[in-house]
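Re: that backbone. C-alpha cells:
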C-alpha cells in the first residue's frame, strides 16, 4: 500500500497531540522553529545530516 508522506505526518502529529497533550505554545514553537531552520542558512547542513 502506498501512503502519501504528508498523510502519515498529519496522522502521527494528530495522534501525538491527542495522546500526550503538549501545551499549544510548544506545538507552535516547534512548528515555527522547524520552518525557520529549514529556510535558514543551516537548512542544507540539516538536510545532509538527516539524509
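Recovered sequence:
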Amino acid at each position: 500500500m502506498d501512503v502519501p508522506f504528508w498523510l502519515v505526518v498529519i496522522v502521527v502529529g494528530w495522534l501525538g497531540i491527542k495522546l500526550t497533550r503538549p501545551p499549544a505554545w510548544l506545538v507552535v514553537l516547534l512548528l515555527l522553529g522547524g520552518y525557520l531552520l529549514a529556510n535558514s542558512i543551516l537548512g542544507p547542513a540539516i538536510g545532509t545530516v538527516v539524509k
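The chain has a mean pLDDT of 87. Residues 24-51 form one domain.
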